[in-house]
Design a protein that fits this description.
The protein is mainly alpha-helical. It contains 4 helices and no strands.
Length: about 80
Amino acid sequence: MKIRFADWLRQPSTLTGLSLLIGGVSGLLTGAFHADIATPLILSSLPKLLPDNSTVRVVSDAVVPAVVNALDRKGGQPPTKNS
């Protein structure tokens, strides 16, 4: 059975996953969340978004914390002005 994107987007689990992902990333970038809070939010969004893909889950467990730490360092800095 083929799932269309619109059908996938209408699923409650997909909407929950997107909410966790967007909340974690935006909170991290704005400085509202520390990396210790954003990492579990982002990691918990992936099983909701990709429930049947265990390979992506394993890879994300290794990659997401490093990405969150990199974003956390950039998120606390004010934007620079271009001359």
